[in-house]
Specification:
The complex is a heterodimer of chains A (110) and B (121).
Chain A lengths: L2 E3 L3 E4 L5 E8 L8 E6 L6 E4 L13 E6 L4 E6 L8 E9 L2 E4 L3 E5 L1
Parallel strand pairs in A: 2-10
Antiparallel strand pairs in A: 1-3, 3-7, 4-5, 4-8, 6-7, 8-9, 8-10
Chain B lengths: L2 E5 L3 E3 L4 E8 L8 E7 L5 E7 L5 E3 L7 E6 L4 E6 L8 E8 L8 E4 L3 E6 L1
The chains are: A mainly beta (110), B mainly beta (121).
């Protein structure tokens, strides 16, 4: 079964750059698009990246996504960190019609 | 502006059936999108329950499939979730979501605010 694995937590200072990984197992991550969602406390998730690297309108270009086939992983990079970026980030993919989520990564901006 | 609103009992007894409805406004549920239920247990991550198309075609989470039924009512612009034989492990915030997989892009792009369902004896 295909699974997506994320680090439980990451932290970085304001104005710095952070990268959150999402590693696939049980299949190739490049076979299916990866989405990234941001969830702030008490709120529903919102999309920050879809189809590996596309940004919805309204999402700042500080957010970017990529796929690395050599490590079978997707990455979400946030540059110029702001305190408002503090949230839990989930990667997600579709595999033969099934929706798979990673376990989520809590980003702390300190 | 598309909006999704979950409704249903907030408290369900152990071993009984959880029933939720999602009302979609500002968009036709008969359009080329799937419609999904996603849940989140307290302090935990997101778990997809299932997705349904206007035709009634469904995809379910294999780990929940034996207990879950989704349905869709295009005349009311609503879709629903039924989960039988619930336990405390089914206590979660349940979100209804638009699933764009057949619409030319892949995204879970609109979410309801979520409704907290507690399972207790």
């Amino acid at each position: 079964n295909f699974m997506l694995t994320q680090p439980h937590s990451v932290s970085e200072s304001p104005d710095k750059t952070i990268t959150i990984s999402c590693t696939g197992s049980g299949g190739s991550i490049a076979d299916n698009h990866v989405q990234w969602y941001q969830q702030r406390p008490g709120s529903a998730p919102t999309t920050v990246i879809y189809e590996d690297k596309r940004r919805p309108s309204g999402v700042p270009d500080r957010f970017s996504g990529s796929i690395d086939t050599s490590s079978n992983s997707a990455s979400l990079t946030i540059s110029g960190l702001k305190t408002e970026d503090e949230a839990v980030y989930y990667c997600q993919s579709y595999v033969r019609g099934i929706v798979i989520f990673g376990g989520g990564t809590k980003l702390t901006v300190l | 502006q598309l909006q999704l609103q979950e409704s249903g009992p907030r408290l369900v007894k152990t071993s009984e059936t959880l029933s939720l409805t999602c009302t979609v406004s500002g968009h036709s549920i008969s359009s080329a999108y799937y419609w999904a239920w996603i849940r989140q247990a307290p302090g935990k991550g997101l778990e997809w329950v299932g997705s349904i198309y206007q035709t009634g075609y469904t995809y379910y989470n294999p780990s929940l499939e034996s207990r879950v039924t989704m349905s869709i009512d295009t005349s009311r612009n609503q879709f629903s979730l039924k989960m039988i034989s619930v336990t405390a492990a089914d206590t979660a915030v349940y979100y209804c979501v638009r699933d764009s997989r057949v619409s030319g892009y892949y995204d879970l792009d609109y979410w309801g605010q979520g409704t907290m369902v507690t399972v207790s004896s």
